[in-house]
Fold these 2 entries.
Entry 1:
Amino acid sequence: MKEPDAAYDGRLAIDNRDVAGVLERIADLLEFKDENPFKLRSYRVAAETIAEMQQPIAEVAARGAASLQELPGIGKSLSAQIVEIVQTGTSSFFEELKEEIPESVLELRRVSGIGLKTSQQLYRDFGIKSLDELKAFAEGGGLESVTGLGEKTASRIKASLAHLASARGKVRLNEASDLAAAIVEQLRAVNGGQANRAARVEVVGQIRRGCEMVDNVELLASGEAGLLGQTFARLPQLAEIKAQRADRIEGVTKKDVAVTLHMIPEADYAAAMVRTTGSAEHLRDLEAEAAARGYAFKGFQLGDAKAAGESRKRKSKAAGEGHRLPLNSEAEFYSALGLEFIAPELREGLGEVAAARDNRLPELIRIEDMRGDFHMHTTWSDGQNSVREMIEAARRRGYQYIAITDHTQSTSIANGNTPAELLKELEEIEAAAREYDDIRVLKGAEVDILSDGSLDMPFDVLDRLDWIVVSIHAGFQQPKEQITERVIRAMETGYPNVFAHPTGRILGERAGYEIDLEQVIAAAREHHVRLELNASPYRLDLNSYWLRVARQAGVGFVISTDSHQTRGFEAMRYGIATARRAWLTRDDVLNTLPLAKLLAELDRKKRQRRPA
Ligand SMILES: [Zn+2]
Ligand SMILES: [Zn+2]
């Protein structure tokens, strides 16, 4: 029997990320079981290959297991398993593993202070299988009875558990954006594609505003509601549909992320974009603005206030129907209210409506303004690509300059450089740089600020560098005053160009160290040190709030990706979204400068170096 919508099945295939995810989890469970490291490594390699390839894995799998074996690192048994995952979303081997060990034990390692050994110990000795169980165990004072677990680690675990609880149901912007993009593509495919102007699908809500963490992936669509709803309900990413109304469907993904699809008539599209993008505060300001002009902004329509009122009195369902303003774009919506167009990232109710009324909105920085990247790692420390590969990747992005900034030795887990190793790396950078006349490669390092505030590299070696990033990677438990003092002492040497990831937070994982950012901002200004907006979606540090504070204090910024591989450069867009949320312009950011101006500025900074 042919199902009525069978034609769409092919388009709704599982995506590469999901297949890679299953393989990763198999590897994690094998590791938890202390299985042969080569075996689990083969799963990880396959997961990485699949996650990175452009072609949909479902397409390759459809041609059979033999085609899969042409991919690097995928052998016979893995290829059969991948076919199974593509067809069913799981594999019998994975299901068997999960019977043996509950998958939820993997959650334990998201807690900072818990590594593989401790997670195994908690499971084996105390039967703890999930974060919830660990939380109850910790609250009942259980951590104190775990052998080998010091008081410091126990309190770190508790703090991390509290942080994780606050991040529940949220995902990082990159993950949310990827999910949204995959869903949009599937909805567009059934909705007649971009060619059909009367049928649109767009990402709205928190993702469009560039929020660093997202608890609801929201999409807006016009088109045939029945078809959209049917497709949405069949999305492979969804676990269940929570609510369904004529104008909205709410679902939740297998990874527990809320997804909402708004469905509206094409005529309401512009006002609906505004309604579904802005924060509650922004919408409240717009409603007030509309009222002041004799309009009513209600639901997905902007109309005449009087007409809307009358139709409500007549208990008409279609409030304002026939009186709504014809709007072709969001710009027309804002313009109807006497406002400049307000970029989505600003729609937070932080004074942007008043600024738009007075034409005071800043000209926000754009990704096209970026001319280089000042923070990246290579195989000289914990990066995955060579110096040359990073240069090539930067050229492909059209950058005019980059700085190579590997770790220094105290960050030993990241294989940091000794002074002698750094000098050798500089030779390699110089040699590589000579091969290119279209990109300037600056010699740099990410130098650790040691726990007494000194720099993890002698001054005579630092003197050989064009660009010095300083940061904190250890001693997170120090009191606030001490950490703040460390950073200020480092700045006082005159060497640092930028203080990287100033709070040390990892989004959704850890809160970062205690630091007095107001004092750091004052010191950065005094010593002409820039503050980094680390564009990695795991960090986005500084956040938009502190960027705004620092900007008002007259501090300049650098937006860098902290790439550990060539594709890390793509994270720049998350940094730009955050910068725009902070109202930053091109002038606030050093790596928008053309090369000649940049070099002049670096020279000026070099003359401020004063070794103690
Ligand atoms: Zn770092
Ligand atoms: Zn780094």
Note: The two ends are 82 Å apart (CA to CA).
Entry 2:
Amino acid sequence: MDPIALLLESHNEGRSFPPLAKPELLLVTCMDHRIALRLPENFAFVLRTGGANPDPVEPYLVYALARTGVRTVALVGHTDCAMSRPDLEALRTLPQGLEALYRPRIAGLAVGDPAAFVVRKARELEARLGVRAVPLLYRVEEHRLLRLEGKAALDPGHGLAACG
Ligand SMILES: [Zn+2]
């Protein structure tokens, strides 16, 4: 079974699968507390970062792919992501030195539109690593995964223009 189809059936439909013989998917999603994925046992490597940004964890991603032969990556952005436009005012609660240190670094990790971001990053990973990379959007409102269409995701109002 296609690992993306398996992901959608397991999470969205709540279908049970027996533990897999070996991992078939590498999934990158946001560290947000509202994301709770239902995954079969032994199915996926999961990397969580702010905004589902694969860049800071790419060495882990590449190593896992090389070591296991997994050829499919799911990039799962989500609605209402705090890394879209980070609220740098929140950093005022940090001690002076830390605020100055982290403000530019956090600002530089802004992802903008979460759906457009994972679509773009998926294309970059495919081009750079030669793997299949599939962008998805996790709707925290309903806890459902939507498979994004690249073209639709780049249009305004993309959040509703998804399939699968
Ligand atoms: Zn997020």
Note: Residues 30, 32, 51, 78, 81-83 surround zinc ion (CB under 6 Å).
